[in-house]
Amino acid sequence: MIGAGYVGLVTGACFAEFGFDVVCLDNDTTKIDKLNQGLIPIYEPGLDSLVAQGMKSKRLTFSTNLKESVQASNIVMIAVGTPTNITDGHADLGYVYQAVKDVALAIDGYTVIVTKSTVPVGTGDEVVSLIKQTRPDLVEGVDFDVASNPEFLREGSAITDFMRPDRVVVGTDSQKARDVMQRLYRPLYLIETPILYTNKPTAELIKYAANGFLALKIGFINQMADLCEKTGADVQELGKGMGLDNRIGRKFLNASPGYGGSCFPKDTLALSKTARQLGAPCTIVDAVIEANTARKLKMAERILQRLRDRKLSKPRVAILGITFKPNTDDMRDAASLVIIPELLKHGVDVVIYDPLYYKNSDCLPHLAAQGITWGSEVTFASNRKEATLDADAAVILTEWHEFRGIDLSELQQSLAKPEGFLPLLIDLRNIYKTNEVDGLHYLSIGRSEVNNKIAI
Ligand SMILES: NC(=O)c1ccc[n+]([C@@H]2O[C@H](COP(=O)([O-])OP(=O)(O)OC[C@H]3O[C@@H](n4cnc5c(N)ncnc54)[C@H](O)[C@@H]3O)[C@@H](O)[C@H]2O)c1
Predict the structure, then answer these.
(1) Is the CB of 27 under 6 A from ligand 1?
(2) Structural domains in the chain, sorted by start
C-alpha cells in the first residue's frame, strides 16, 4: 500500500484483518516511525485497535523501503493524495505518477498495480504508458497489469464502510489482473457484496460521478433550505418527505453550511475540469460548485448580520466544531476555514471548541493557511462550557455527538444577554428542534427563526 493516509492506512489494516500480508509505505518517515511505535497519525474510530491487531499478527507492517516491499508483493495499491492543483483546478497527479515511477523501477515479477487514489478518467492508461516509459523491458500482461479500484469509504465510518461496502468497483481489461483482484476481494463475497468489473475509464469515472451526484444532492437540499426560509416551510420535513421516495433516498438530504472535506470539493472541481477539457461540460456540477462556494460565505454573513443587529462593540463568538464532519480530525476544505476568517475580517473575536482539537494543535497549519493565527482574536477552549461562557453567540458548525445533548437552559444561562435580546444560538446543523429552545434566539437552516423578535 503506497501512502499510509486515511485511505491507505484503513485499507491496509482492513486487508490485514482479512488475512493478507500488507506493508504500508509512506515517504513521510515521521508517519512511518509513529506507526511502527503503534501511534496512529489520524483520528478514525476503531483504527487504533485494528492496526494494533494487524501488527500483533505480523500481517501488517510499515516501511519506507519501497523497493523491498514492492518486490515482496503481487499487488501494489496506490493510495496517495490527488489534491486540487491550485493553478488550474485539475487533480494534481504528481504524487500518483511519482509513486508509479518508483514502483515501475522496483518490479521484478508479475505485479498488479492498482490505483485506489481518486484519479481522472484516462489516468489508468497514462499509468500503463508511464510504466512502459520508465521500464521499457516490462511487458504489459506478463510483468504487470494496471487496474482501477476506486475507494468509497467515508471518514468517520471508514472501517465499516470498507468491511461492508455497498459495492466494489474494479476496472481492468486483463483477465489475469481480474483473477488477482477477485482473490483479494474474496472475503467480501461471503457477505455478498456486489463487485462490479468494468474497464479502467468506467471505474475511474464511477468514482467522480458518484461524488458529483452526492454533492448535487447536498447542493439541492441547501437551495431548498433557502426557499424554505422564505416560505415558512421546514427543510427537515421537506427532506424526509422527498427521501421517503425510494427513487430519491433519504441520505444526503440534510441542509448544511455546504459540503467540505477531502473529497467532494476537489472531486467536483476535477470532474468539472476534465469534462470541460474533453468537450462534454457538466454544467450541473459547475452550478453545484458555485452554489457551495457561495454558501459558506453566506453562512458567515448570516452570523454577522445577527451580531450587527445587536450593535455590539467587539462581539465574541463560540465556534463549536471545526472539522468538516464529526468523527474525523480532517480539516481539509472544512466550512470553518471560510467562516472563521470572515468573522475575523469583520472584527469578531472567535473562541473555538472542537472535541478533537482542544488537545492537540494539528489543526493550526490548516487555520494558518487561511490567515488564522492563534492569538488574542482566536483562542481555543478546553471544553464547550468554557467556550460559550459570556459569548455573544454560540455557532454549531460540526454535529459532534457531544453537541447533540447540550443542556439548553445551562447554555441560555451562560451566553451573553445584551439588553433587549435573548442569548443567540446559531445551529448550522439543525441539531435542535425549534420548539425546544426556550429563552434562546435560535437560528438554524431552512426553518423558522425562533425568538428573534423578542425584546426583553
Ligand atoms: N479521505 C477519504 O475519505 C477518501 C475516500 C475515498 C477516496 N479518497 C482518495 O484516496 C486518495 C488518498 O486520500 P487520503 O485522504 O488517504 O490522502 P492522505 O493525504 O491522507 O494520504 C496520502 C499519503 O500518501 C503519502 N504519499 C504521497 N506520495 C507518496 C509516495 N510517492 N510514496 C509514498 N507515500 C506517498 C503521503 O505522505 C500521505 O501520507 C485521494 O486520491 C483521495 O481522493 C479519499
Answers:
(1) yes
(2) 6-164 (3.40.50.720), 294-443 (3.40.50.720)
